Automatic annotation (TrEMBL):
Residues 101-474 form the N,N-dimethylformamidase beta subunit-like C-terminal domain. This is N,N-dimethylformamidase beta subunit-like C-terminal domain-containing protein. It comes from the Bacteria. PROSITE patterns: TAT. Pfam families: DMFA2_C. InterPro entries: DMFA2_C (IPR046540), TAT_signal (IPR006311). It comes from Gimesia panareensis.
Length: 509
């Protein structure tokens, strides 16, 4: 395919670029960084007092096996918002009850995990309608906003949770809670741009009952279902029971431990939504780009942005699994707000066998993406899920410095529940730094690989090859360890922390 061959040629050409071009590229990046950067911002923010009470305490689902909590639930009008811009928060209570909204920024904050930014309300709640299924089973809410919040200028970039709490229930003694989630973004140069995987959060969101890109009557892998960001996030619905997640997407499950750890150590980090990466502009101002957790669904413009960033000298770090798997076109809502509806448009993978098989089995699809292996250094494989240990292959590689690891040493349970493998053999300088076997369902073996390869301007691309990487970085308040395929990560591990320090320090130096 033409776009795949072009991407491959650009990669091979870039890898043998002259040292003069490398120096010029790095000087350009560093000059932009020095002009507007505030590398101490996150450190200063985390010196502020954290909150002792920001988690969900009382959650009532509509049924024992349900996903939503109609007692109180809500959503925001945007995935991300900049300081000085407004965002609407829509809330429904059933029955009508007074409620308040507490806005927290998640971070380290001395180990507390979040800081209270403001409290809004009380408001008089009311039941708001569940939309009837539209074309392609679309559920798009048109709720009245409870409040329009203009983001203050001194709120730094981060992932923010709005805790919705009724002030009483019918007994007069209880209350019910859920979250809304939004990202505060900025355009400042930073060492690290942390991309939240919110396209994937929404793809698996089953609100109100069983409506996601996986639940269309025609099948769970085709292009048939549209999903809207204009609806609440139901409880996390995949591999383990996590009522704490209600309304927060997958942030607390698979990404927050990474952010908590970054902010604990004072890394210069800024945050964005998947939807913000349809342009490379912010990423080109940063030294490194992080894909974290379960980052499966990418608009093709995100892919193009990542290629431009890599070729300009930005380090791409995939601390994630099952990433760049499905082309996910984003389009405007029915009232014209951009990038609010998406669907599974087709597989990435180009002519790779897994993508070809997905097309045969679940297509036809209106889109096909290039081979993600030439971006990430490894690919989505079949089967793509399972559990296993992360096994050192190249102990003398600089990423293992200070870990004491030897070839064959393993970190238990770190592979899961999805991963990457089968790296392209013609990427110049690609190294397999870790590899091993995962077991799908505890029975079916599959090979995974963690890789690193040089970019064209003294930068690099790293692929950890697991959704679970952040589980071994930290265990913050509000987080629960997952398990899947009869396997589980163990929580904070000094070797994973050291490897991550090694990678980030080189990526941001």
């Amino acid at each position: 395919m033409k776009d795949i061959d072009a991407d491959r040629r650009n990669l091979l050409k870039g890898a043998v670029a002259t040292s003069l071009a490398s120096l010029a590229g790095n000087l350009s990046l560093n000059s932009a960084h020095a002009a507007k950067a505030d590398p101490d911002l996150i450190h200063r923010e985390n010196l502020k007092e954290g909150s002792t009470d920001w988690q969900l305490t009382r959650v009532m689902l509509d049924s024992r096996n349900g996903f939503r909590s109609s007692k109180i639930e809500g959503y925001c009008s945007k995935q991300s918002v900049a300081a000085g811009e407004p965002i609407d928060i829509m809330v429904s209570t059933r029955p009508a009850e007074e409620f308040k909204i507490e806005i927290f920024r998640t971070g380290y904050y001395g180990g507390r995990g979040a800081r209270l930014m403001t409290t809004l309300g009380p408001f008089q709640g009311k039941p708001q309608p569940v939309p009837k299924p539209g074309k392609k089973n679309l559920h798009e809410c048109h709720w009245d906003p409870a409040v329009t919040l203009t983001i203050p200028d001194d709120w730094p970039s981060g992932v923010y949770l709005g805790r919705l709490s009724t002030l009483k229930d019918k007994t007069g003694h209880g209350y019910w809670q859920s979250y809304v989630v939004f990202i505060v973004k900025d355009d400042r140069p930073a060492d690290i741009l942390f991309q939240c995987s919110d396209n994937t959060w929404q793809a698996y969101n089953k609100w109100p009952s069983n409506y996601s890109v996986y639940t269309h009557p025609k099948g769970n892998q085709g292009p048939w279902a549209d999903v809207s960001f204009d609806r609440p996030y139901a409880k996390y619905a995949q591999i383990y029971e996590n009522p704490q997640s209600l309304g927060s997407g997958e942030w607390l499950c698979f990404e927050f431990p990474f952010a908590y750890w970054l902010e604990k150590h004072g890394y210069d980090v800024t945050y964005c939504s998947n939807s913000d990466m349809t342009s490379p502009d912010h990423g080109l101002k940063c030294k490194s780009f992080l894909s974290v957790g379960h980052d499966e669904y990418w608009d093709i413009r995100q892919y193009e942005s990542a290629v431009k960033m890599r070729d300009a000298g930005v380090n791409l770090l995939f601390f994630s699994g099952n990433s760049v798997c499905w082309v996910t076109p984003l389009r405007e809502s029915s009232d014209g707000r951009p990038k609010r509806i998406m669907f599974r448009g087709g597989p990435y993978g180009g002519d790779y066998k897994y993508a070809v098989d997905r097309e045969k089995q679940n297509g036809p699809f209106p889109h096909r993406g290039p081979d993600e292996g030439y971006l990430m250094g490894a690919r989505n494989v079949d089967p793509v899920n399972g559990g296993g240990d992360w096994v050192c292959e190249m102990p003398d590689h600089w990423i293992f410095k200070g870990t004491g690891m030897k070839k064959g040493d393993s970190i238990p349970g770190l592979i899961g529940w999805e991963y990457h493998g089968d790296p392209p053999k013609d990427i110049p300088g690609l190294e397999v730094v870790a590899k091993g076997t995962a077991l799908q369902g505890g029975v079916n073996p599959q090979q995974w690989t963690a890789t690193i390869y040089p970019g064209p301007k003294n930068n690099f691309v790293f692929n950890a090859s697991t959704i679970f990487w952040c589980q071994d970085l930290s265990s913050p308040p509000g987080h629960m360890l997952p398990w899947s395929h009869w396997s589980r990560p163990h929580g904070p591990d000094e070797r994973v922390q050291q490897i991550t320090h090694n990678i980030l320090r080189r990526a941001t130096s």
